[in-house]
């Protein structure tokens, strides 16, 4: 299913653990709830970048489009939840995003570059997870998650292209740095299930 996006597959350090896929299938109410939160946070991230970096024309263009698409995805997830009688509730964040963001450098343009690279990892991982789940879900959810792959893959490309555009030299070293962290976050066990959590901790 991800064969159409070889650059995305190569970018990620690993596939999602099978134990995480099984965990997601056992917690589909929580999956949809956290998915809705993820879409809202993604829109917020794009808007924050637009407010902070008003002099970056290409960033403004790409993030404006991305924010609209993420909010549309939020509306679609929320509609699915309502049709299934699932309440939209507050959830604590997974350690995934914070585990990446705590390594963001504080000086510019390094800060922007790191945020954009992290954005690329978040979007790529979301795409990979939707593809991993789709074959195992009911028809409605499966079709919905498959429909998200193209936009998530494009968001990954947008973030990575912007990171390279605004860097003074190659970003490969920084990408490798965050790839190693992302790998650790994806394979290490978690206590709570989330869209971007690791596999379940064995007790």
TrEMBL record:
MF (Gene Ontology): tRNA 2-(methylsulfanyl)-N(6)-isopentenyladenosine(37) hydroxylase activity
Transmembrane segments: none
CDD domains the record matches: MiaE
A biological process from GO: tRNA modification
Protein name: tRNA hydroxylase
Species, as recorded: Marinomonas primoryensis
Organismal lineage: Bacteria, Pseudomonadati, Pseudomonadota, Gammaproteobacteria, Oceanospirillales
